[in-house]
Structure formats: structure tokens, C-alpha cells
Write a structure and sequence with these properties.
Two copies of one chain form a homodimer. Chain A is α/β, with parallel strands linked by helices. Chain A contains seven helices and ten strands. The first copy, chain A, is globular, with a radius of gyration of 17 Å. Bound molecules: adenosine-5'-triphosphate (2 copies) and magnesium ion (MG) (2 copies).
Chain lengths: 227, 227
Amino acid sequence: LVEAIELKKTYMLGKVPVEALRGVNLKVESGEFLAILGPSGSGKSTMLNMLGALDKPTSGKLLIDGIDIATLNDNQLSDLRRRVGFVFQFFNLIPRFTARENVELVMSIADVGKAERRKRAEELLEAVGLKDRMNHKPTELSGGQQQRVAIARALANNPKFLLMDEPTGNVDSKTAREIMNLIKRLNEERGVTIIMVTHDQHLAREAKRVVQMFDGVITSDVVNGEP
Amino acid sequence: LVEAIELKKTYMLGKVPVEALRGVNLKVESGEFLAILGPSGSGKSTMLNMLGALDKPTSGKLLIDGIDIATLNDNQLSDLRRRVGFVFQFFNLIPRFTARENVELVMSIADVGKAERRKRAEELLEAVGLKDRMNHKPTELSGGQQQRVAIARALANNPKFLLMDEPTGNVDSKTAREIMNLIKRLNEERGVTIIMVTHDQHLAREAKRVVQMFDGVITSDVVNGEP
Ligand SMILES: Nc1ncnc2c1ncn2[C@@H]1O[C@H](COP(=O)(O)OP(=O)(O)OP(=O)(O)O)[C@@H](O)[C@H]1O
Ligand SMILES: Nc1ncnc2c1ncn2[C@@H]1O[C@H](COP(=O)(O)OP(=O)(O)OP(=O)(O)O)[C@@H](O)[C@H]1O
Ligand SMILES: [Mg+2]
Ligand SMILES: [Mg+2]
């Protein structure tokens, strides 16, 4: 599915280079469930942006299903991105649209009829516990509720590959439990490949594989259950 | 210091009322350290906005140092708000300013000289571990780094009263530990009154008192260490 080879990402801050990724190698097969742990500023979100082809690396290669994404044109890249579900660390919901519209919006690009869009959006919002908040706009929702709209939106196009940046960051332990159960069901019943960045060591243990990052490199990569 | 009497807050969503607070009574003495726990959507952030006089309740009273804030004019209200440090759940940093400028900005209203502002902003950012990221803008910082800028900014005017909405929500366990140690030091050494909303049950136990909320009301309020 996805292979990162010597990925580097350097941001230029004026004249000062900031090395967010300093040579990352990672191979993720279809159907895996991976957690990425690491201190604040270690490069986790940057890594996720690379794996989802949302941003270009400074050097190194990213292969998705064997194709080097550097060889794709813009149309091919946006086709690829549509197949990936992405939950950003700070949601990026569109403030003037309601929860239901934020979820429907993503579907409209994938040629789904209006009635079908609405029905699917309502099913997804119900699955994340927001049945009675569908007509609220992001500013009319609590932090945890916004987070759950972002998760429903990421599932809108039935992605086979899901990248989630702190999906339980702003929710209480009960809601976090529900979100984890949803994620595990998607992985085990539908074979969705999931990469989840988290700060929660307990939740990371529920993934099948745990990758640790530190200062822009991967420092460990173990299959869960093994010592 | 602060007393909430039968506080209610109802948002109108079109014609549909949403009762975020349904009658809350809370008394917080100077120097206390209080944690507020509760499920997503239970009214924690709304409660914090009321206590910091950032938003008006639908009914009920809020007394700060014995004064009913409904009797204050706009100038007196903004004077009051300056004495309160506020860490929002989603930071609200100003994107076009650097970390240092975001901290300095708050000080400029409180008549502090330019050189003094810069020095204080740098000290605060160093205290939260961001010595080498001062010239980054929010979009050039990781999630956890942005959270720490928001904490430094809340401390800029040396507040005696600090309201923090999930101060460790987006950070790793080591950074969360450092933030908690900073909060406890402010409370124990400087006598700062702190109200912290959190989803983390372990961190809540470190406060001196734990208030539980559910569906817009306070369901329990115990002093820590007692059963
Ligand atoms: N502007 C608004 N308009 C309508 N409803 C709102 C508005 N703001 C909040 N709400 C509703 O009020 C309730 C309380 O929201 P609040 O943000 O206080 O919850 P919270 O306890 O902080 O939750 P979380 O843990 O998810 O941050 C929620 O159910 C939310 O949907
Ligand atoms: N646009 C940018 N310009 C400059 N530096 C950046 C930019 N974006 C990120 N950085 C830096 O790159 C490093 C990695 O950031 P990243 O967001 O990947 O961290 P993270 O592991 O997700 O952290 P957190 O747990 O706090 O979310 C950080 O030190 C950050 O300051
Ligand atoms: Mg991040
Ligand atoms: Mg909240």
C-alpha cells in the first residue's frame, strides 16, 4: 500500500531551516492498524501529511500501491487523495456549514446523489453519537463534538486508507472508547488500513503495530503483543 | 473570588433551544485549584466562558469578588477580563503573528514597555519549552507547541485567576507532565487560583478539588484525597 523511503521534510523559516523529518523509512501493508507515538514536535503530523500526499517531501520517495507519487500530475494526485480519509489534528471544519453539510460536502466530489449524500451523512453522524446535533455549525458544537464531525467526514467516501491525527485528543474517556471501537471495527470488519497518531500510550497498545518517533526519525517499530 | 448562582445558558439554534447549562451553583475561593471533568457536550467550556465573563448567562448570577458582573459596564468588564488568564480549548492564536508576538500582544494593553514585553514573552516561552520556536507562526508549529504558546500567553499579565480548557489536550505525556508541574507551581508558590477543564482522570486527581459535570449540571464536587 504505502512505502516511505528516506523521507525528509525541511521547512524554511526565513533563512533558518527546520528539519521536521530527517530520513524516515516506513512500509505499511493493506489492512494494517498502526499507531504513531512521539513527543510534541517530533514530526508525527508532518509524517501523516506526507503519507496522505497532502504535502511534498523535501527529498526521498513515497510509493502508494507501488507508484512514486512524484510522477503523478495534479489530477492523479487529487484522485489519490479522495481514496484517503484524513482526520486533521485541528479538524478544519468549514465554519459556515452545519455538521451534516460538512460531511455531505466531501461526498459531492465523488458523484453521489443529493438524497444519498444526506442519508449517508446522517448515518455517519449517528455512528459517532451526533444524531441530535446535525444542524449545528462548528462554532455551535463543543470541542469533542467537532472532533467527531471530523471523523464522520473522513469516513464519507468509504476510504480504504484512514490517516487520523489524535482522533481522541479532545474527547472524554467514554467518547474515546467509542471512537476506538469504531476504528477497530473499520479495520477488522472492513479491512480499512489505519494510521493513527496519538499521545495516549494505552490507546496505542490497541493498534496492531506501534511506531515511535523522536526528532524527525523513527526510533522503534514493533508489532503489538511482542516484547 | 467567584460565585455562580443558578447559572443557565441556553443557545438558540434557529428556533430550537439548546440548554448548555441548566442551573449551576459553584463557589471558588482565592487560591483554589479545581478540575472540571465531564463527558463531551456536558457544558464544561460553556461554564468556563461564564466564569471568565467572556459570555453572558441566560439567567442566574455571577459574582466576582462579591460584585454582580451584570452591573458592570463594558470598560469595567474588560478590566476584569484582563486580570483573568484564559487558555481556550482551540488556542485562538493569531495566525499572522509569531509565538513571541502572540504573547507580547496581550501585554501591550496592560501598559508594559516594549523591551520589557519582549523579555517577559521570551521568559514565558522558555518556561513552556519553546526557546527555539519563538519566531514561528502558529501554522509553523506543531499542535502541542501551539498549545504551549497559548499557555504562555495566558500567563502574560501575571493573572491571579487562570481558566484552562484542556491545557494538556494536544501534548504528549512528558509535555503534559511539565505543564502540570508549571500549573501546580503557579498555584502553590504564587497563590494563583486555577480552574482546569480536563478529560484526563489522572491529571484531575492532582487538583485540590474535582467537580463533575453532566448534561449542563454539576453532579459532584469533592475535595481531593477524600473518598
Ligand atoms: N453556540 C452554540 N450554539 C448552540 N449550541 C451550542 C453552542 N455552543 C455549545 N453548544 C452546545 O452546548 C453543549 C455544551 O457545549 P460545551 O462546549 O460547553 O461542552 P464541553 O463539555 O466543553 O464538551 P467537550 O468535552 O466536547 O469540549 C453542547 O451540547 C453543544 O452542542
Ligand atoms: N510550516 C512550518 N514551518 C516551520 N516549522 C514547522 C512547520 N510545521 C511544523 N514545523 C516544525 O516541525 C516540527 C514537527 O512538527 P509536527 O507538527 O510534525 O509535530 P508533531 O509530532 O505532530 O507534534 P504535536 O504532538 O505537538 O502535534 C516541529 O518542531 C515544528 O515546529
Ligand atoms: Mg501534531
Ligand atoms: Mg469543551
